[in-house]
Amino acid sequence: MSATDRGDHREDGEAEDLLLELRDLPIQDETSWRLRDRLVRLYRPTVAREASRFRNRGVDHEELCQVAYLGLMKAISGFDPSYNKRFLSYLLPTVSGEIKRHFRDSVWAVHAPRSVRDRRAELNRFVGEFTRIHARAPRQSEIGAHFGLDSQATGELLNASESYSAASIDTPRSMDGEGAEEPLSNGLGSIDHELDSVVDKQALRASLAELSERQQRVVVLSFFSEMAQTQIAEQLGCSQMQVSRVLRGTLDQLRSQLLGEGEEE
C-alpha cells in the first residue's frame, strides 16, 4: 500500500467519525461549521489532486480547484455514514462529476444546446475508437449512423462540438521574418471601406477613357498631381481661366455620364 493510500485510509477513518457527529447537527450550528471546516482541511490535498487531473484543458487551475472544493462541500452534505462505505469512494466521483459538469455547462466558446453538450464526450469516444480500428477518421455519414441522426443534424452536432473552445486572437501562430512570434490577430481580415466604391471607380475609368487628351491631362494634373490651376496653365501654355473652364466642363461631362449609367441600370 502506498503512502497516499495509507493517508487516505487515515483520512477516511477520521472523516467518518466527523460525519457521524455532523449528521445530527443543524447546519447553522457552530459545531457543524467547525466539523465541516475540519473535513475541508482534511480533504483539501485529495481534492486538489483530483482537480489536477483536468489541467491543460482550457480552464485555469485555480478555477478548477474552486469547482472541486464545491464538489467537496456537496459530498460532505450528501454522504450518509449509515451506508458503511468509505467517504473517499463517495467524494471522488462527486468532485470529478462537478468538474465535468463545469466543463460541459460553462466552458463552451459559444452557446450550444444541452443535447450537443451531452453528446460531445460520446462523439470524442466514438471518433477515437473508430480511428483506432479503421486507421482513419469516420465520415460524417458514419457518425450520423452511430448517433441515429440525419445529415443535417449530424452537421449541426459536428459544428457545435467544434465550438467547445476558442483560441485567443493573441495566441502565437507563426514566426515573422525577424524570428518574433506573430499573433493570430495579424491574420484576421478587416473591413475594406473602399469596397463600396469599386463599381463607381470602374464606371469612372471608362468615362475617363472617353475624354480628350487635353481633358485627361487637366484631370491628372489637378487631382493626381494636385497642382494649382495657375501651375496647370503654365504647363499647358494657356490662361488660368481656360483651365478652369476645361476642368468644370470635364467634371460636368463625367457627372452626366455616371448619372446616365446609373439611371439605365
Architecture overview:
The chain is mainly α and 265 residues long. It has three domains: 3-106, Four Helix Bundle (Hemerythrin (Met), subunit A) (Up-down Bundle); 114-164, Arc Repressor Mutant, subunit A (Orthogonal Bundle), CATH 1.10.10; 200-264, Winged helix-like DNA-binding domain superfamily/Winged helix DNA-binding domain (Arc Repressor Mutant, subunit A, Orthogonal Bundle). The chain has eleven helices and two strands. It has helices at 3-23, 30-52, 61-78, 87-106, 114-134, 140-147, 151-161, 198-209, 213-224, 229-236, 240-264; strands spanning 172-175, 181-183. A two-stranded antiparallel sheet has the order 1-2. Strand 1 and strand 2 form a beta hairpin. Helix 3 crosses helix 4, helix 6 packs across helix 7 (151-161) and helix 10 (229-236) packs across helix 11. The longest helix is centred in the last third of the chain and has 25 residues, at 240-264. The chain is elongated and about 110 Å long. The relative contact order is 0.05. Residues 1-9 have low confidence and may be disordered. Residues 169-191 are annotated as: Disordered. This is SigB/SigF/SigG family RNA polymerase sigma factor. Keywords: DNA-binding, Sigma factor, Transcription, Transcription regulation. InterPro entries: RNA_pol_sigma-70_dom (IPR014284), RNA_pol_sigma-B/F/G (IPR014322), RNA_pol_sigma70_r2 (IPR007627), RNA_pol_sigma70_r4 (IPR007630), RNA_pol_sigma_r2 (IPR013325), RNA_pol_sigma_r3/r4-like (IPR013324). Residues 39-108, 208-255 form the RNA polymerase sigma-70 region domain.
